[in-house]
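Field guide to reading this record: the first block holds the primary sequence, the second block holds the structure written as discrete tokens, and the final block holds curator observations. Each block starts with its own label. This record concerns LacI family transcriptional regulator, catalogued under organism Kitasatospora atroaurantiaca.

BLOCK 1 — SEQUENCE
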Amino acid sequence: MSQTAQRPAGPRGNSGASGRGSARPTLEEVAALAGVGRGTVSRVINGSPRVSDKAREAVQTAIAELGYVPNRAARTLVTSRTDSIALIVPEAETRLFSEPYFSDIISGVSAELAETDMQLLLILVRNQRERERLSAYLRAQRVDGVLLVSVHQDDPLPSLLESLEIPSVLAGRRSDLEPLSYVHADNAGGARMAVRHLLRRGCEQVATITGPLDMEVAWARLGGYRRALEEAGRPYEEELVGLADFTEEGGRLAMRELLERRPGLDGVFCASDVMAAGAMQVLRAAGRQVPGQVAVIGFEDSIVARHTDPPMTSVRQPTEEMGRTMVRLLLDEIADRGRARRQVVLATELVVRDSA
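BLOCK 2 — STRUCTURE
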């Protein structure tokens, strides 16, 4: 497979000193001059991080000397490459624009793609019709790879991506047996850290507000809450578990229900900052002082955590780095379709502020 390119006119190209006259330089000639394999040249051109600095410099020097310019139209015809990737969000636009998690992921993805020639397409999937339209779009091979965020267990998209053999990376996973590549934070460990902090500061009745339990991320954070209680010799009580959906309104509703069931609760671990902000509003309206009477911890350490009153203690997950890492994994899979799938878990840490 060869690639053609238009070579700019210049002394070298017109003199014929190289023996090629005005012929267009090929990818093979770049590889030969750089002293590397053809695949390495392709990875450099496509912006893959899986190239050593020495090889990348040699290829870039050879490209400059030969005046090689990839002909993207020809490459698309030969390789079916589109030089575009899709970032798919199977949520309503209200969540996309109201939750910092999504904007932080997009920021990380965009930053990592900035030095490549890849075009980023943002696709929202809000209903069955849009899901069917996306399915047809993916089957037509309109993108080279897919980044999928907000993974629900009953979502058919991951299975579709797997069956189509499209290079794909998930933000999160469906279970610990996930066959696709994914990147996520240490959700269970972060939740455990938060609840241990509440117990150490003397909280006796620690509640939790979960995300939707059709998402592994919500189960993992609930599991971390439960484990911290068990380690401290405390019982796990369903009355202290409020079910929500990662939204502010969900956090408010769950907090009201928890106060009705257990008015004496004195600690709350929320599975997201947005829900924690909603919970703090309800506590304030109920005359409960934070942290004097009820300590509150969120998860993500987003901009929300720094702007609540009082400022929120939160489990920091490196959301932007998740986006960057997803892109690096995806570019590797695009460059090497036979590459084994990878799973990356990023560390979390507790950021202590006034709410706990």
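BLOCK 3 — OBSERVATIONS
The chain has three domains: 11-79, 84-184+320-346, 187-316.
The first strand starts at residue 84 and ends at 89.
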